[in-house]
Design a protein that fits this description.
Layout lengths: L1 H37 L9 H10 L12 H20 L1 H11 L8 H24 L1 H6 L2 H20 L9 H18 L7 H8 L2 H4 L6 H10 L6
Helix pairs in contact: 1-8, 3-4, 3-5, 5-7, 7-8
Amino acid sequence: MDDWIDIARGPLFTVGFLVMILGLGRLVLLQLHALLVKKGRRLKQVSWRRIALDSLSWAVPLRHLVRGTIFISATSIFFHVGAILVPLFCQNHIVLWEEFLGIGLPGLGRGVADALTLSTIGCCLLLLGYRLVIKRARDLSRTSDYVILIMVLLPFLSGYLASHPAVNPLPWGGMMLAHVLSAEALMIVIPFTKLSHVVLFAFDRLSEVHWQLRPGAGEKVAEALFGEEARV
């Protein structure tokens, strides 16, 4: 089992990490090409200061909470906090970053890492339940939405169990292997799913550039959506 774990933490981790970095890099380059080459003239009309402030406001998005959805919005916020901080700053993960990238990152204390891990697991389960139970969310959800949440859940759950033998029902080696492989599978799918917003988030704030319509285009869009009798 130790040999399998070494392979998973070595060459398989390298493959997963490179697929994630190259895939996300490709998406960023495509976005930059679309902005600078195809829509370069529109950028002169953009209020960069307002966009920067709006992007920063989403770092702690309290003012973006919508009445009636505060609970699920807060759940999503805590989910994102744990999903970002634990993979980057967990002490056991820092060893991998040092081995693979040669850089050292500050580590989270054991108690903080455990709390964030459990918070992420709980939030992930709540988000899954929300999509399953609430009709409006269920109607908007696709199979991929459930698969993505489960793929995010597995590394956190298996990692917590592997690091807490007292609550782990399976042998440590098997749980650790499941943790590493599920994390690497997640890295591979990030550039090809909604999870790619980890790097596309900043470009989303430029929606006024992406969605700027030419004169008369609004009427054509309305006609396509609602028929010839539609008027803008």
